[in-house]
């Protein structure tokens, strides 16, 4: 499992948000990780610990890169143009 703490991932994320291959939310992300259809997973800086542990476990099990963002979930929600905070974001294959 590859773990990154890079600010340049925000510019990459902005490009990926323009495609239809983005899934928001913990429950949908966990389902996708269990099926192995994810390409990358992004976590906000203040993602809840129980969610972080679950996502880390399934990402490691599936061999999917996990990227820790320095932005909190409210800023990630604004970046995704959503009126609510986003803690977990998944890019599909």
Characterize the structure shown:
With 93 residues, the protein is an alpha/beta fold. The chain has one domain (3-92): 2-Layer Sandwich (60s Ribosomal Protein L30, Chain: A), CATH 3.30.1330.30. It has 4 helices and 5 strands; from the N terminus they run E-H-E-H-E-H-E-H-E. The chain has helices spanning 9-17, 26-35, 49-62, 73-79, and strands at residues 3-4, 22-24, 38-43, 66-68, 88-92. It has a 5-stranded mixed beta sheet with strand order 1-4-3-5-2, with helices on both faces. The longest helix has 14 residues, at 49-62. The protein is globular and about 30 Å long. The protein starts with a strand and ends with a strand.
Strands, total number: 5
Oligomer: single chain
Report how far apart the termini are. 16 Å
Supply the CATH architecture.
Answer: 2-Layer Sandwich
Q: Briefly, what CATH class?
A: Alpha Beta
Number of helices: 4
What is the 3D form?
globular
Listing every helix as H and every strand as E from the N terminus to the C terminus, the arrangement reads EHEHEHEHE
CATH superfamily label: Ribosomal protein L30/S12
Mean pLDDT: 88
> Main beta sheet: strand number and arrangement?
5 strands, mixed
Percent range for β-strand residues? 15-25%
Question: Can you tag this structure with a few keywords?
Answer:
43% helix; single chain; alpha/beta; 60s Ribosomal Protein L30, Chain: A; 5 strands; 93 residues; five-stranded mixed beta sheet
């Amino acid at each position: 499992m590859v773990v990154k703490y890079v600010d340049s991932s925000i510019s990459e994320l902005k490009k990926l948000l323009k495609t239809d291959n983005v899934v928001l939310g913990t429950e949908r992300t966990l389902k996708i990780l269990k099926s192995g259809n994810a390409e990358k997973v992004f976590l906000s800086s203040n993602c809840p610990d129980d969610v972080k542990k679950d996502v880390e476990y399934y990402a490691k099990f599936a061999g999917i890169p996990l990227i820790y963002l320095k932005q909190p979930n409210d800023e990630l929600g604004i970046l995704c143009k959503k009126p609510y905070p986003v803690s977990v974001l998944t890019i599909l294959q």
